[in-house]
Design goal:
Elements (H helix, E strand, L loop, with lengths): L4 E8 L7 E6 L8 E2 L2 E3 L8 H13 L8 E12 L3 E10 L13 E6 L11 H14 L3 E8 L5 E9 L22
Parallel strand pairs: 1-6, 5-8
Antiparallel strand pairs: 1-4, 2-3, 2-7, 5-6, 8-9
Length: 185
């Protein structure tokens, strides 16, 4: 299927209590849902994923980061998302801890949540069922996954590489891969 390729970043930011920073989105996609901050690469400028993550962190949270402040936790490719585009997502953990909630902006407002609270939040379905389990199992490590989005709404997920963080390898939670949709900036 000949479709444009879009590239974006997601930023997993934490405070000193290890609570995750999420954005309550004011606009589509994912309006009314909670998701990590992030955004699209400026491919026309040749922007790197790390430069994009640093730019998006500053634009959305006010953080001034360098590539050394980021850990690439995951790489997700999607084939034919909603029949409109192929996607490449870079999931970065931000190493510096935040000491305050960023100010609201046009994209929505932020709030910190303990990990356990995520199960009760309005999250994009694929974030809940695929991205969050993969992130938690590989935090401090790395994973690569591919999602083939079928025209009938089914998604087929394949984990292509997995390097759990060393202290987590024996205690990783099982990751389920149900069919659903992923939404992006």
């Amino acid at each position: 299927m000949s479709l444009p390729y879009k590239i974006s970043t997601l930023l997993y930011c934490f405070n000193e209590r290890d609570e995750i920073l999420l954005l309550h989105r004011a606009h589509e996609p994912n309006r009314g849902l909670w998701s990590p901050p992030g955004g699209k690469l400026k491919t026309d400028l040749g922007e790197s994923p790390y430069a994009c993550a640093c730019r998006e962190a500053h634009e959305e949270t006010g953080l001034r980061l360098t590539p050394g402040d980021l850990h690439l936790t995951g790489l997700v490719s999607e084939h034919g998302y909603q029949g409109q585009a192929h996607w490449l997502l870079f999931l970065f953990e931000v190493k510096p801890r935040l000491d305050a909630i960023p100010a609201p902006h046009a994209e929505g407002h932020f709030q910190f949540f303990p990990r356990a609270a995520l199960r009760d939040l309005a999250l994009p379905l694929t974030d809940r069922e695929q991205l969050w389990p993969l992130f938690w199992n590989h935090r401090g490590g790395f994973f690569a996954a591919h999602c083939h989005c079928h025209g009938d709404g089914r998604n087929t997920w394949t984990v292509e590489e997995t390097l759990p963080r060393p202290d987590h390898a024996r205690h990783a939670e099982p990751v389920s891969f149900r069919s659903n949709h992923v939404h992006h900036d």
